[in-house]
Amino acid sequence: MSDLQLVNDRLNALIGNLSPSSRKEMARNIAKKLRASQQQNIKRQQAPDGTPLKPRKAQPIRSKKGRVKREMFAKLRTARYMKAQATSNEAVIEFVGQVQRMVRVHQNGLRDRPSRGSKDVQYNARPLLGLSEKDEMMIFNTILLALG
Question: What total of structural domains would you count in the chain?
Answer without folding.
Answer: 1
